[in-house]
TrEMBL record:
This is Probable periplasmic serine endoprotease DegP-like. The keyword Hydrolase applies. It comes from Azospirillum doebereinerae. GO terms for cellular component: periplasmic space. Residues 1-19 form the signal peptide.
Length: 500
């Protein structure tokens, strides 16, 4: 089995002291910093932070048989004495009141508000739990209330009521962390209780496909089972990350752990505290990455930004005039250097706020004012970004045209027969791909029979000859690639094909 990304497995396990390694190898010790004693020990800092880190124990009721439901009796030959024996046995079992079994799990968390008893952990630690118990460092058990949780960022907020004195830790600035900075991770690995490990920030802004707002800090501090929801500290004793996942071939730590950055967590936690749920900004677009080929075909000076593949009808973007084919390069003054940054920036924007959006359209930039909507409200209404629709589109009456080969594909005008064969929506206009050469760039880009080409070079096409003409025009203009807008069963995306 290859190395796998494992959620719900985050926790630190003791690692050899970096200073001890350096000393043993005759190397100079690392430079000391805040919270690190001259001897190279983290002991003072760990002693201060440990009381704020808690264990999270959850229980979930196991499925129970309905009253009167009898387990299946083994089949025996008719008249067998075993038939009566098993029937009597199961009847007696039904009459006994058996306690319901519960499944339990362990994770970690930390106190952020000692006065009001707020505790932060991972969503997957408490998801589907019937009971949640917070266990303090001195083994005090306190029942917890779930204030709110967010599956998109894997965060949850709990609240405990107790006269027991609590210790809280503050959030720090995760954006200030640099690759190579020291960090401490504290959690509950393998259910052993509070454990401390040290490491460094190995990388920032990692995307591990855990959710739409991935922006993880990567660390080599040992992370193992049970540490999910535990804090990662800088040397000032501030929480700069929440340990969430590891990359491992065996389920144990191999020095690749991931933590949710505190600057993302702070906003989610604040919303959970105020509303009991998240309230994110919403733009109403489907986007894709800008590759060098796409940038060249659009005349964009650099391959940056987020390419709008489709716009949700009546969404904020549609109402403001943003169009498919626009490249968002700035949102509310913030640079969008890569596609993944746009969803995070939009989500962090206040709902109903009017913001300037700078887009690249047809060879130049322009600024559009957009009033940000609410993502959760859009989800409740079932709004999804969709491709362009034309409800007044007439039915196809033209006869089928001869397939035309271009860019390694056979293209044909859409006919009623092809609509039925490839399940193409009645309102969709364009040119259907009926065959793709296996050795072509189109095949490498994932195009296949049944895909519908809606635009070529950001201009609509209706017949294969339109495609051929636009390809020829692009070649005459010495363009290296050409941009296609392709629909695959309602899923829109842009594909840049080389013209060589």
């Amino acid at each position: 089995m290859t190395a796998a990304l494992l959620l719900a497995l985050a926790a630190p396990v003791a690692a050899p002291s970096m200073a001890a390694k350096a000393h043993a190898q005759g190397q100079p010790q690392v430079q000391t910093g805040p919270g690190r004693a001259a001897t190279g020990s983290f002991a003072d800092l760990a002693e201060k932070l440990l009381p704020a880190v808690v264990n999270i124990s959850t229980s979930q009721a196991a499925p129970q048989r309905q009253p009167g439901q009898r387990p299946e009796i083994p089949q025996f030959p008719p008249g067998s004495p075993f038939e009566d024996f098993f029937r009597d046995f199961f009847d007696r079992q039904q009459q006994q009141d058996q306690p319901q079994r519960k499944a339990t799990s362990l994770g970690s968390g930390f106190v952020i508000d000692a006065t009001n008893g707020y505790v932060v952990t991972n969503n997957h630690v408490v998801q589907d739990a019937d009971e949640i118990t917070v266990i303090l460092q001195d083994d005090t058990n306190i029942k917890a209330e779930l204030v709110g949780r967010d599956g998109k960022t894997d965060l949850a907020l709990l609240k405990i009521k107790t006269s027991h004195p609590l210790t809280a830790v503050p959030f720090g600035d995760s954006d200030a962390m640099r690759v190579g900075d020291w960090v401490l991770a504290i959690g509950n690995p393998f259910g052993l209780g509070g454990s401390v490990t040290a490491g460094i920030i190995s990388a920032r802004q990692r995307n591990i496909d855990a959710g739409p707002y991935d922006d993880f800090l990567q660390t080599d501090a040992s992370i193992n089972r049970g540490n999910s929801g535990g804090p990662m500290f800088n040397l000032n004793g501030e929480v700069i990350g929440i340990n969430t996942a590891i990359f491992s071939p065996s389920g144990g730590s191999v020095g690749i752990g991931f933590a949710i950055p505190s600057n993302l967590a702070k906003q989610v936690v604040a919303q959970l505290k105020e509303y009991g749920k998240t309230r994110r900004g919403w733009l109403g677009v489907r986007i894709q990455a800008v590759t060098p080929e796409i940038a060249e075909s659009l005349g964009l000076p650099a391959h940056k930004g987020a390419l709008v593949a489709s716009v949700t009808p009546d969404g904020p973007a549609a109402k403001s005039g943003i169009q498919a084919g626009d490249v968002v390069i700035k949102f509310d003054g913030k640079e969008i250097n890569e596609m993944r940054r746009l969803p995070r920036v939009v989500a962090e924007t206040a709902i109903e706020k009017a913001v300037p959006v700078e887009v690249w359209r047809k060879g130049k930039t322009q600024t559009i004012q957009v009033k940000v909507g609410e993502l959760e409200a859009a989800e409740e209404q079932g709004l999804l970004a969709a491709g362009p629709e034309d409800k007044q589109a007439p039915k196809d009456k033209a006869p089928a045209q001869k397939p035309t080969e271009s860019l390694g594909m056979k293209l044909t005008a859409i006919t009623p027969e092809l609509r039925q064969q490839y399940d193409i929506k009645p309102e969709l206009k364009g040119v259907v791909i009926t065959e793709v050469s296996s050795s072509s760039t189109a095949a490498e880009k994932g195009l296949k029979a049944g895909d519908v080409v809606l635009e070529v070079g950001q201009e609509e096409v209706r017949k294969p000859e339109d495609v051929t003409a636009k390809v020829q025009k692009a070649k005459e203009q010495s363009k290296k690639s050409i941009l296609l807008l392709v629909d695959r069963k309602g899923d829109l995306r842009f594909v840049a094909l080389p013209l060589s």
